[in-house]
Write the structure tokens for this entry.
Amino acid sequence: MDILLFGPPGAGKGTQAKLLTEELRAPQIATGDMMRAERQSGSELGKKFDEYMSAGKLVPDDLVIELIRKRLSQDDAKGGAIFDGFPRTVPQAEALDALLASMGRQIDRVIALDVPLSAIVERVVGRRVCLDCGQTYHVSYNPPPSDGVCVSCKGKNIVQRKDDTEEVVSTRFEQYEAMTQPVLAHYQARGIVKVIDGVGELEAVTARLREALGR
Ligand code: AMP
């Protein structure tokens, strides 16, 4: 099954995707996480990603599509995937459709997490993330352990992302509205979109998500 989690920055896509991986027996494919890993490796490609990411701008489509093409050829993604933060533009959605079609697959369901702008800034600015495993925390709602040790991987790399500041978030949100919002219409035309309320306790949102997936 191929699922796409859709929503603005800070909507909770990554958190929910991680919770679904076991149940759906499909990996989370999060282009943001993949790009951060590449950036951390210090590679030339990582430096290129950083130019855009630090400014809150979208990375050019050709680079993103190549990243996805390689990721989908890995064994764990052969039976389906949970896409998180991709596709973010209509050309990316078209490229994904073509890639999946070449594997006899298609996006089966798009779940859009509806979160008002007023809630987004607080969520994003308070977010902390483990650089080693991607586990997220929030300074008020789910604070990182006081000893700085990640609950998931026991690493000691919990940080605030460079692009989770108030200034960069506003650019990210503008990019979302201009470039990413139209992706929803692309899938709505196929009748596979379900919009769920993304506000509330983590477990409540997960329950809505499972219901939307018919589980
Ligand atoms: P995220 O972790 O999903 O919030 O993504 C962080 C940043 O990575 C974004 O602000 C973009 O700069 C870049 N990025 C992640 N995914 C994509 C994508 N599908 N297309 C373009 N840029 C992306």
Q: What stands out?
A: The domain at 2-115+167-212 is CATH 3.40.50.300 (Rossmann fold). The longest helix spans residues 166-188. The mean pLDDT is 95. The pocket of adenosine monophosphate is lined by residues 9, 31-32, 35, 52-53, 56-59, 64, 85-86, 88, 92, 163, 172 (CB under 6 Å).
